[in-house]
Write a structure and sequence with these properties.
Distance between the termini: 21 Å
Protein name: ATP-binding cassette domain-containing protein
Order of helices and strands: EEEHEEHEHHHEHHEEE
Oligomer: single chain
Number of strands: 10
GO molecular function: ATP binding; ATP hydrolysis activity; transmembrane transporter activity
Structural class: alpha/beta
Helix content: 25-40%
Keywords: ATP-binding, Cell membrane, Membrane, Nucleotide-binding
Number of helices: 7
Largest sheet: 6 strands, mixed
InterPro entries: AAA+_ATPase (IPR003593), ABC_transporter-like_ATP-bd (IPR003439), ABC_transpr_LolD-like (IPR015854), P-loop_NTPase (IPR027417)
Number of domains: 1
Radius of gyration: 17 Å
Shape: globular
Bound molecules: adenosine-5'-triphosphate
Pfam family, one: ABC_tran
Length: 216
């Protein structure tokens, strides 16, 4: 059973049809790379799936349960997490940022602190725990954002060009975190450009072209 399936998903901006997808499916605990030219609609598709942009959807099932995208149900908000290319950080510490969602969900302090500690370790940012996010590099911010998403155990993690502004070691450090996300049971969809050759084990390649999705 797919983790997410949508019989038809159509997105228009005004008169312009951006995409019209049929039988869109994502499997549980899998990594996908979503490519396409500038303006193909990669970011928009991720934002639609995250409930951040409206679209017309028919036949949406999440974990086998029929759902709608509009209104966007609280259960999807909990299970689907979107990470922006330039993540917005709250002006508290790194640890405070990572724990923010857990506190918002009402988790007890001690339990949250433990999960934040594990997530900082996972993302390799323990040494930055007390730092103010404004002082972090692009790669460090992206890893903090991934840790902030991971602690929430999302079923679907949507990463919008997570490595686009990174190179060298920073890029590799971010990519190295992806397999453990799928091992932990999350499905990961990463938008990126065709030229960003992302090689990950068992990754599926999806390409948005002329408003349709091709599996490569
Ligand atoms: N709010 C909006 N109103 C009107 N048009 C929009 C809006 N947001 C995006 N678009 C248009 O939709 C198209 C797809 O944009 P989107 O950002 O999804 O593409 P993308 O594939 O992520 O591109 P890139 O690789 O450049 O980030 C673009 O032509 C963009 O100008």
């Amino acid at each position: 059973m797919p983790m997410l399936s949508i019989a038809r998903l159509t997105k228009r901006y005004g008169e312009n049809l951006l995409f019209d997808l049929r039988d869109f499916q994502l499997e549980a605990a899998r990594a996908y790379v979503l490519t396409g030219m500038n303006g193909a609609g990669k970011s928009t598709l991720l934002r639609v799936l995250a409930g951040l942009a409206p679209a017309e959807a028919e036949g949406v099932h999440f974990a086998g349960v029929p759902v709608t995208l509009a209104p966007y149900p609280a259960a999807l908000r909990r299970d689907i997490v979107y990470v922006h290319q330039h993540p917005v950080m709250f002006s508290t510490s790194v640890a405070g940022n990572i724990g923010y969602g857990l506190h918002a969900r009402g988790m007890a302090r001690a339990e949250a602190a433990q999960l934040v500690e594990q997530a900082m370790h996972w993302a390799g940012v323990q040494h930055l725990r007390g730092s103010r996010p404004a002082t972090l590099s692009g790669g460090e911010k992206q890893r903090v954002a991934l840790a902030r998403a991971k602690v929430l155990h999302p079923r679907l993690l949507l990463l919008d060009e997570p490595t686009a502004s990174l190179d060298g070691e920073a890029r590799e450090q971010v990519l190295a975190l992806i397999p453990s996300l799928t091992e932990a049971g999350s499905t990961v969809v990463m938008a990126c450009h065709d030229r960003d050759l992302i090689n990950l084990p068992d990754v599926r390649r999806l390409k948005l072209r002329d408003g349709h999705l091709e599996e490569k």
